[in-house]
């Protein structure tokens, strides 16, 4: 088998299913000996070269090794049998049989040549050609293997100065045959000289752009242009690696030719065609690689460092540098793959240092600024990069620099003419930071201030936040809330122990793959296998192809489970951590995130005590070290049990600083880089963009002095954090300073604030009532059976809903039962009974369009209204399962209209998708009317605003009944400061715009006369005097309307006196009132409070004393008005009618109309003549105008009037105006004729 030729090897490959590799083996000249001596790397190279599929290659390699091992075993067995046969043959020939007296037959061995040794001396020959063969270790190894496998002899080679000595040891006959074979081998040596001008130089010159030849090798060109002895070594190494045994030489250094000697032997032979093919396909020569036209010092140093560091046996870099010059030449000779690789790297360096012109884009103002003010700074930039020959020609708006410096120099120049500011947006990664509309708005803001947004950058950082421990555990919590809280905590991905210089963190399996790690510590072979690292690797730093760093430090296996073994293992852990620490310091000094792979740790750390010892040792390592390290434990999905053990131990080791739990949050940081020309103020643009970011994209709000957190238990805190994170709001609750910080989208922050207030409000309402919580005492089925029984016991709630909403309402029902409420609810389509409604504190309705179509539901509603039962409707504004974004708005409008028609009030509780917040709204409303476990009780209604800041210096509390939310945020100092500023501005305006003293004197004199007349009228001294005199006097019915006249007189008298008190410091214009918040809605206005009187009722029975005080009592005083900023339609109507009562009494109007009657006579337009209509129009219009006004209007409407042309009016404009007047007159005439 060792004598197999390449064809026989190919047949063997085909017989074993590797026919696709036969061509490759033949091209590599793999015969029997070469096949027998293939190592693992060579097998991988041969088998993997045909297919890029890693999985398929792995299978083929494994199968090939199995077949090869079988073939080797067969070969060894055949060789052993052949050796035994040779020995038997030699013994039979060389032995004689001697017969003794005892008739015993003895075999006497005379084979003295069994350990025969023979030495062969082979001189080095001309030019040491033979020595070159024996100096080649590949040739020596192949020769020894050939003699061992074919003749079963050992061969050793001793290299001397003049000759090479071969010592053959074995049986005499095989040794002699081997000596003859060696002689034949060297007699077959042939020589080829590449000096033929017709054949060796026949091909075209090498195209080094594509590294290819045209069929024939130009070896003569190499010999005449490559003046380096290393080229011969390169060719020799390439031939050796191709398993072609040759000896290369060059006749002379500068004018000689290449010559090659090779064997024409079956096992060592090579043909001229094979050598030519290798030279043609595998060797390339690139002469004088392109260099930069202007070579800088930086380039010379870089290229020399590169050349000195590149070392490869199959590559020769010919480097020519001329003394006292910047000229440099580089040529490459060697294996084609290496030449391509190095040439590409050199081209990158050349492109990097090639000087190129670059245009600096700038405005004319920026250019003038640079020329006038920054010439010295530009010169400093040139000096900074003088080794790169940087030249800045600012007058031409360009500079010359290498490619790698262009952006850096551009940045320096722009820093001279531009100033930069960065606005940062921080959002949770799942939320998009900037939308298209936001980008447009930000660019508009920047443009308004003559700035520009240079770029927007983003990066993601993973942060660990803590959930604080509650200050109390006394508050009872419904079981459903506890379940949600526990589920939220179990979903958290990290547990952390805080240490002074770092931390120890444990991550659940689902999150471990997302971690960013500086270095990974592997301690077991299973960990190596998981990271695809060879199991026989040595301890130390392993640099992975992907760039990841791995430190291998094996942890010894644990033996025994007794106390002695446990103590021994503790010492092992200390040594292990000590070695790991030293390796990190030596190899990865800048590492911060250090991950420990826990593969195959189940046996090492199967006891909580050992886990605790490991964590405490790590904590001590971090505390005693100077580095800031984070130790991360990562687990795979098969290690959930081990992960849980670590988590349980971690909980016991955590301190108050770590809080109750921790969670990871990926923060997306978006940086908006603003630029503007120097001299412009960038601060206003930066402030407005930051303001827009806070108000529209991502804001931050802090609630301070929230002392009610004392009563929050841990489940409440967990639920609040869960809600915030679902809304992409990052909460930070400090139970030491009682502050709550919320970061996220502004709309979501408001929802989180509402959640906090509702939790506090619910807790407050429950604590005030002293509710003894009963959590989960009965199952929903038992509660349902009990609640549907009509007995003498009252219930809290009667829940009415239609059959279509049973699934949603059943979930709501169980939640309310879990709160401790007793409910009646519909179990079928028959609805609630009247007795159930009567025995309940209130009726809860799940209202939607289906509810209005259900007759049983409507009957429940109407009956509850008839008996005056408290009704709390829930409006379903959006059906999550059915409504889409397109029909949501239409459905909400429809539900709103139906709600107003049935309940005659605004919607207070609506369900539109935010179930957690909406349920809290509902629960807070229910607690105001009924408490769990308490029925048939009346509760005082509490204001919707739970927190009121009492301010002694203001009277908003008395005025509105509560302080508005914006006013709550204004401190006393801010209020005083703003009020003082308002007074100064008001005094300054009064001083500038007050009415003149002469005009004031006239007004005061006239108003004093009016006051005297009003006082006489109110005292009854002049009852016939009409206080309303003028062009438009109003005819009052004094007998029936006396009290209204008196009320108006009192109001007017108060108004005049108030004005007289302010004179002479008055102005003609109105002044905006003082508002602490800057919002006019927070000014100290009194809201209207209805009189509660029916304006259509007859008021003859009211006494005069009451009528006198209708407006005078509270006219200019603060009223206990209704909350809100706007009048309702009823209030506006009542206010309007209170004033029109003075014009005409409604009691004298006949409001009842008989059938076919009209309120006043009417006549058709067609029945009126033109003259009548004209007179009537004039009558209606002229009664409000003076004769002078009527005459002036007629003159303006005369189309024949002579127009005076104003200086600023064009002739075309006047003509067009006349045409319009004439056309309008014709239109009026035509309509009149019709």
Automatic annotation (TrEMBL):
Record PROSITE patterns: SAM_DOMAIN
Occurrences of domain SAM (ranges): 4-67
Superkingdom of this protein's organism: Eukaryota
Cross-referenced Pfam families: SAM_1
Gene3D superfamilies: Toll/interleukin-1 receptor homology (TIR) domain, Transcription Factor, Ets-1
Official protein name in the record: SAM domain-containing protein
Organism: Rotaria magnacalcarata
